[in-house]
User: What shape does this take?
Amino acid sequence: MLDPHRLRTDLEQVAKALSHRGFVLPVAVFSELEGRRKVLQTRTQELQQLRNSRSKAIGQAKASGQDVSALLAEVATMGDQLKQAETELEALQAELQGLLAGIPNIPADSVPVGKGEEDNVELRRWGSLPTFAFEPRDHVALGDGNGLLDFEVASKISGARFSVMKGELARLHRALIQFMLDLHGREHGYTEVYVPYLVNSDSLRGTGQLPKFEAELFALRDTGQGAPYYLIPTAEVPVTNLLRDVIVEAEALPLKFVAHTPCFRSEAGSYGKDTRGMIRQHQFEKVELVQIVRPEQSYQVLEQLTADAETVLQRLELPYRVLSLCTGDIGFSAAKTYDLEVWLPGQQKYREISSCSNFEDFQARRMLARWRSPGGKPELVHTLNGSGLAVGRTLVAVMENYQDDGGRIAVPEVLQPYMAGCRVIGGR
RNA sequence: GGAGAGGUGGCUGAGCGGCCGAAAGCGGCGGUCUUGAAAACCGUUGAAGGGCGACCUUCCGGGGGUUCGAAUCCCUCCCUCUCCGCCA
Assistant: This one.
């Protein structure tokens, strides 16, 4: 959520900044609502003040034994007036809140201006692309038919966009998770957390998935009482919400968390996209990095967090590149985002494997996550997160980059300790 | 699932329908004292919103109701704890 005060005082500038990401701020609607809000709020508060002072007078008169019938008569019609004003104000504020909740974050100044994917700026590349003396297979060809990957049985059990991994491949997948958790936990100083995979709507509002992106979520059938649960689309939701409605002491910052969770996405609107293989699934594993920091440090931390994610690819010796997403391509809540894209020989393309973002105070304002600043006053923290990494896609990258002409897959050196020394899997 | 107890400020914990944004203690901050620190003593200390401002409004788990007036009474939901049952 943007700062409502800024929206009131600097509407044109905000609208301009948002136009860079292709968002049209309904300026006229907003200022009209805001104008009415101001009048109505003032009036409501005046009525409340009057009621409070009259009620107090009645109390005092009663206490001193005076007759209060005159005072009561005076106040008789006030209740309805006040109730009406309060109801109107509430409706108006709900409308404003709804509008506000649908406004995306303002891109940082350093974000390249552009319309979409094609305008993202490549910052650097790491590693050299593997060369093969044969036509490299994609991960489906490498895993299907030899018992490692089974999409048919997955679709029988569940449907499209699910997969079943077996044997050494399932183990390699698990090894990746352990490796990533250990790297970030032991070497990068993140605290490992285990969190719920089902969350309430407040949590999703806090990180910005609701109200705008409900269609991308899986909701559990309402059990009849209370609000429904949602399956998390990313660990970012439960982990960042650890700080919801919390004021942390300055010394406690930065808070660094790493969590491994499954992620569930409906992938609405991506029909026909990446239908082959396990690139785009309804269920996948991810190791997520989350940091809660002082505002003045967040951009420095974004670089560090991105570097932490890059380390995973470097240790796995997977070639990748880093993009700075342009204003037209960054996510709803983000002020700035770096994407890591790994090289997939089977597609002869770089594909997204991590997304590292600084949300500044956008999420913090929604969830009221604050820290006690040196002045003693609570201030909003800045929140960041990044995949470190998407496990399913990392597995795909390992399979495709480490294949040999027999369709076997070499186990990256750093994973071998997690595989009981196993050095090669698969083949037929 | 059954029975009971409870949710109040950073924490613990009081709170006859009006003098309660809320006692007291702890913690925090400032000061006195001290070479310095501790102790002691004095003062101060919740959050959100509106207004240039004096100031005003809202908030005692969430929502609804009764009342001129609700932390306090009623309804409802959620959560926590204890016991029993069941269960990985």
About this structure: Chain A has two domains: 26-101, 117-426. Chain A has a mean pLDDT of 91. Residues 4, 38, 41-42, 44-46, 48-49, 51-52, 54-60, 62-63, 68, 71-72, 74-76, 78-79, 225-226, 247, 249, 368, 372, 376, 378 of chain A lie near RNA strand B (CB under 10 Å from a C1').
